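Q: What does the assembly look like in three dimensions?
Context provided by user:
Components: two
Sequences:
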Amino acid sequence: MDKRRSSRLGHVVEIIRRRNTDADWGSAVCSACATSLDSIEAAALALRSAAKTLDLLGASHETAALAEDLQFSLGEGPCLAAFDSGRPVLVADIRTSVDRWPIFGREGHRIGAIAIFAFPLRVGAIRLGTLGLYRSSPGDLPTRANTDATTLAELITYTLIGHSDIDAVRSATYRDVNLATGMLAAQLSIGLDDASARLRAFAFAEGRPLLDVAKDVLERRIRLDGAAP
Amino acid sequence: MTPRSDDACRTAQYAGDVPDSLVGSLREVAATLVSESDTSHALTTITDACAESLGTSATVVMVHGALGEMRVLTASPDDPAIVALFEKHADNGPWVECQRTRRAEGFAGPDEAARRWPDLAADAATARCDAALSMPMLLAGDPVGAVTLLYDTATRLSDRELDLARLLTDMTTLSLCQEPGAHRVESLARHTVTLLNERVQLEHAIGMVAGRLDISVSDAQSALHRHAQTHGLLPSELARSITLGVVDIGELAG
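A: Here is the predicted structure of the complete assembly.
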């Protein structure tokens, strides 16, 4: 990676890491993304849920905020598609996507969102939201920007679920933690996102490492719903 | 390979020609690389080739995560004890050392392990890893991960086997960046994130099956793979369906 590009990315990474100290973290991250990512003009960070809720964490420009809002109101668009599928949705020209998003395809460009690149924020099957990147002119997302956005989306995701240091990130992705999350979700008939949150909250409240709690769940020593196993 | 000698350390030599089975494996890997990209299939073929032609008891591929930490991408066979070993010692072991030296690093037996990586040695012995050799995955000169060959008995590889290990490692790296030219480095990151997410998703699904059917994790893993095979699905596809709730987990029982 050449020096200039790594220092631009490094700048965004620094801002992502300032989650706890920056009051306007969401918008700061979006502004940094818009400045640092090749050919991108605006960015928006949104938390979403399966129940179609939207929590806009930040936006670098009015255009991005409006585009997110519009997709939410219409219930369709690249960001929703990325969230639902768990895969990036890259649209070089929204005007040619009317069959996929009939209304947003027509309305989106009026607010200046012609090219839209939506990256899901996810860890495995746990979906948190999307990072939406926008440009007012048509054209593909350059490969480098695609890769950078992928990496940044991952970093943002880990930061959002409360793991921004290497040890925490590592232990959060351990096999036993993932297995326990699935087991908990099935046992309590809740979503994976909720199960993951419950596991982490329990570990935090007990002051025990996440991995230890996960092992207890797998060995059926605890169930986390208050009932005895 | 020749059978084990009486020496404490096993060595092996090729009689001369490259075994047919190896040629077949290499051909399959190359075909996968040039065809429609199916990275996880290519990786499986490569780790199978390691087992067959290098006699490994397990092969682990690690890559760098978003924060630079090393993470297990695949383990073949997917032995929980081995995965746990690598997760616990992700920042201390031959797989880390080889990133620094850009050369093969490892231990041929438990004594060497205890001498060079004392914190790792006891856990390695418990997981029945008496010997390990980590090959750095290099792309454009930079280390992007490691392929670690594991043996359940003291082992030292011959020069011929080292060459083969290097070849298989390079193919592993290639399988993760299937776009030509300058795009390879970028492609690696995308493929890596996808595969890491698929791994996590598979583990979520196995946990769900274990929880729903009230069975052990290893039974749940078997059930998932069996169901996938019966229905002509990739395990990752079935895992995705399970986590999305579109598959009745009850169908996996029995």
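Follow-up: Chain A has a mean pLDDT of 86.
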